[in-house]
Amino acid sequence: MTDTHTRAVRARRIHFDYPEGGLDRHYVQGDLVMSHLVAYLSSTFPEGEDFFVRSVRHYADQITDPVLKEQVKGFVGQEVTHGREHTALNARLQQMGYPTRLNERLTRMALRWDERTFSPLTCLAMTAALEHFTAVLAESLLGDEDAQALLGATEVRKMLLWHAYEESEHRAVAFDVYRAVGGSERRRIWTMRLVSSTFAGSVVISTALSLFRDRAAYNPVRLARSVWSLRRSPFVKPAVRRRIRQYFTVGFHPNDVDNTDLLNRWQPELFGETGQLAANMRR
Ligand SMILES: [Fe+2]
Ligand SMILES: [Fe+2]
């Protein structure tokens, strides 16, 4: 077994603060589209991560591998903490004028519908698929200085770096649970098709609706500039799109791309005594 398969996953005690007036209205470097898009993604996390936890926990008793059992505990702890921290950010974003409360509610309704409609195994496959999206986006952020520069120097940047780190750390857990309980490749790949089209659609529509409620977006030059700059976004580079598509290959595993160096590099940078998150860690 390789290092990545036996990696210890554990939740960290950490907290982020968004004091009133601490963030600009367009907190992603003044960029309209990115500010609304990140707000939308943030509003899907608390309910989305609850859904991931429920899907994985459903099968927790069937896991016999002691390493995976421990990783599941760490996964649950990390996702619960992410949900809590995104809820706090969403409350601040709501006060700043973003429709995060509405989007949290819509996400909850959509996921409850999924749970009523699909089997627990398909819900687990959906979790593994969405975890692939988050892991690829997370590793694009951690591995690309252009992506980090895009986030400026706010508390939101610090929070997203922490979230990205832990997503990369636990990226294979839901996938391994799916495999361990006998999930087929066929179901995994079909579910990814379903998830990728609905996920992309919901991001585009919800970001557009969110912009629609923002007066600043009625400045055509500013809006056009922001939309135009998306094509140079580090998150839609061909390499990123290629990595998303790897999931469609039969035999794919999240650890096919080694992230050991990436995590080893960021560990002291974020969580070390003098790391970027030293003040946020509860020791
Ligand atoms: Fe998460
Ligand atoms: Fe995750």
Features:
single chain, 283 residues, mainly alpha, binds fe (ii) ion
Sequence-ordered SSE layout with sheet pairings:
Elements: H1 32-57, H2 66-95, H3 100-117, H4 120-143, H5 145-150, H6 155-169, H7 173-180, H8 185-212, H9 220-229, H10 238-245, H11 260-271
Helix pairs in contact: 1-2, 1-3, 1-4, 1-8, 2-6, 2-7, 4-6, 4-7, 4-8, 6-11
One fe (ii) ion is lined by residues 79, 131, 134, 167, 170.
What does this structure look like?
The structure is a single chain. The protein is mostly helical. It has one domain. It contains eleven helices and no strands. α2 runs antiparallel to α6 (155-169), α4 (120-143) crosses α8 (185-212) and α6 (155-169) packs antiparallel against α11. The longest helix has 30 residues, at 66-95. 36% of the residues are buried. The model has no long low-confidence stretch (mean pLDDT 94). The structure holds fe (ii) ion (2 copies). One fe (ii) ion binds at residues 49, 79, 82, 163, 167.
